[in-house]
Amino acid sequence: MMFEGLPTPCYVVDEGRIRHNLEILQQLEKDTGCHVLLAQKAFSMYSLYPMIGRYISGTTASGLYEARLGYEEMGKENHVFAPAYKEADMQELVTICDHIIFNSFAQYEKYKDICQAKGVSVGIRVNPQCSTQEGHDIYDPCGYASRLGVTKAQFPEVLPEGIEGLHFHTLCEQNADDLVTTFQAFEEKFGKYLYCIKWLNLGGGHHITRKDYQYETLVKLIRYIRDTYHVTVYLEPGEAVALNAGYMVTEVMDIVHNDMDILILDVSAACHMPDVLEMPYRPPLSGGYEANQKPYTYRLSSMTCLAGDVIGDYSFEKPVQIGDRLVFEDMAIYSMVKNNTFNGMPLPGIALLRENGSKEMVRKFDYQDFKMRL
């Protein structure tokens, strides 16, 4: 009933759950003095930026367009990191970002003068070479031959003048114990540099708003860093801002049978929830269970021509019918920011579920949105 009247497919973002997450992140800032930034690569629904900006310190970007979005729509602290920067992009970045992080000393040398002239605080990303992830090699910046961050072997004995911060990002949907492990490896290799910088950025991948997150462990670590090295600590959670705060509403278009019953949905894993195929990831489904756990099991697939465009196998207590609506959960993160129009699939609409229960369509997409990208 909550999603009646919405077009399908449609992302629906829950304003109340976003606020709940933000209250936790705001409390972290109060408890530790750290600065929390929204990693826009995970969630860029800028219609909510005014609300987000009332709770946390700003935004962080992975390139010019995200940096411009954070600058225009939130207007608070604005950080950026990229493996490399184009000269034309840098000309604008130094006017809209207060922190720019470089992936190599060569990039720093190339752009240090323009950063200094504009008063931008500059940092270097390091690779602590400490992998704490399991099964997500695609998201492991400490893996073999990673291009992300400078290793200790490539680091100078003395930091070049003008570098004010260090940054590492190694986590993906992880708890505070993994951050502690990573920081200990970082401290062993790079700790001496902490005495000559102003800030340390611990990156993202922190599931701070998850129910089982080790909040006190994180607080203890941040306080240790501040008290020992007297630096400002930054964190860049993306998922934590919108964790469990979104839905994907889809309609069953057809049911076919080949070895098992297969639902053809108007939503696509390949187009609308790419992490399902990339990680891989099994999205939670309202009223859906593990295959064969309930009497009726179906494979959920889409209308694209890609044979592997399969969301997963789910079971239900009752038979599913053509025209039924299904609701996937936790669909705010890495969904809208990564979707595409493969096969000419329409982009899902974007709706906001207000705290008073009302629904508001934020965006609708049509043929022109497909055509303009080609």
Automatic annotation (TrEMBL):
Q: Which cofactor does it need?
A: pyridoxal 5'-phosphate
Q: Which organism is it from?
A: Coprococcus intestinihominis
**NCBIfam families for the chain:** nspC
**Record CDD domains:** PLPDE_III_CANSDC (cd06829)
Residue ranges annotated for the Orn/DAP/Arg decarboxylase 2 C-terminal domain, each copy included: 11-331
Q: Which InterPro entries match?
A: Ala_racemase/Decarboxylase_C, De-COase2_C, Nsp_de-COase, PLP-binding_barrel
Tagged with keyword Lyase: yes
Residue stretches spanning the membrane: none
Q: Please indicate which superkingdom the organism of origin belongs to.
A: Bacteria
In its UniProt entry, what is this protein called? Carboxynorspermidine decarboxylase
| EC code | 4.1.1.96
> Which of UniProt's keywords are assigned here?
Decarboxylase, Lyase, Pyridoxal phosphate, Spermidine biosynthesis
Molecular function via GO: lyase activity
Instruction: Identify the enzyme class.
Output: lyase
The answer, when asked if Lyase is one of the entry's keywords, is yes
